[in-house]
What we know:
By secondary structure, the protein is an alpha/beta fold. The chain is built from eleven helices and 20 strands. The chain has helices at about 1-15, 40-45, 55-70, 85-95, 95-100, 130-135, 145-160, 225-235, 250-260, 275-290, 380-390; strands at about 20-25, 50, 70-75, 110-115, 140, 165-170, 210, 215-220, 240-245, 245-250, 265-270, 300, 310-320, 325, 330-335, 340-345, 350-355, 360-365, 370-375, 405-410.
Amino acid sequence: MIEAINDALDVSMGRDDDVVVMGEDVGYFGGVFRCTAGLQDKYGKTRVFDTPINECGIIAVAVGMGAYGLRPVPEIQFADYIYPGLDQLISEAARLRYRSAGEYVAPMTVRSPFGGGIFGGQTHSQSPEAIFTHVSGLKTVIPATPYDAKGLLISCIEDNDPVIFFEPKRIYNGPFSGYYDKPVQPWKKFDASVVPEGYYKIPLGKARHVTEGDRLTVLAYGTMVHVVEAVCREKGVEADILDLRTLVPLDIDAIEASIERTGRCLIVHEATRTSGFGAELSALVTERCFYHLEAPVERVTGFDTPYPHSAEAEIVQWHKQVGDQISEDEEFVDMMTDKATVPMESPVNGKILEIAGGEGDMVPIGSMLVVIEVEGEVPEDVVEEAAAATEAAPPSAPAPKDEAVEERIEVETSDASDADDALA
């Protein structure tokens, strides 16, 4: 999907000199997910350029560019950081055509990766699409395949209204079956990965029929399209699955036609439940298809909580083994947390007596990771931290007798919410 998005930008910029790409790290670096890689080299720094870390400013400049006659494609690096730009999107971009009686428009496409599934934690995993579907004047588009990503993005760029183009980052490199512990299957193994070269468009407001069935209509978009398809296949449910593609404008005709055949409707999205877009879909289905329904509309959604951190950390690589000597501040293991792989450092000098598991094992946050036999005097703060952390834990086996041993320190896993946080 990354290559498809890059190709769509390339095709659009080649066809129209007014298309401009801007955002944090989109130029020289090519974007945090590499979706804009190579475009600055091809089109120059005046058409593909890096911006300050200022989402409000990025959107505001794009609104002005659109009013001037350009077609800006600003990137918000993660959808979680789009909120500072809401005033510009809602009060300016969405209202410009109406406020100027059609004299000015804002033909801008705001690209942003959204959703969870990449160990991003609460600040890199949100799904805020419902906020934008509530705003008159904004269009909201979410592709689920590389083919759709390219065709829809080209249509968005050529549209004269502002569009929010959310990219499900969990499926950048392959569809997701819903099983986080299974390896990612690359897109090249699936027919939906075939993306034609050159120019093509997919019209906004047209849903895609994923599978046909008469038992149940399932409405989904983005990553959840693949989860729903995998579950229905495994359970043997002959479901009529619709990939909505665009939330606004919505293909209500396709939804009505499907429910008239099946009589049942399930709505699936990973965003939080309350006031999520599924609530709007449920209301529309009830209003328009009431006499065709044989059961209440059901929703399967995310929980009404901040996106949680993982309760486990994965052991990526041990740098020390049982019996090895270790120095204070020396790294002894790399751990994968919610957001990144980070090294753990020893708080003391000593010898490793125990380790929690092998590489690839999952270790609960707060559990013992390593036991260090400490020689000499131990800093008081280290002793206090170790004692507090292990107070509720079951007693460990006694350390080997050694006259030089003063203390036995257990180092535990802890949650790291930022890439530069250390486990201690």
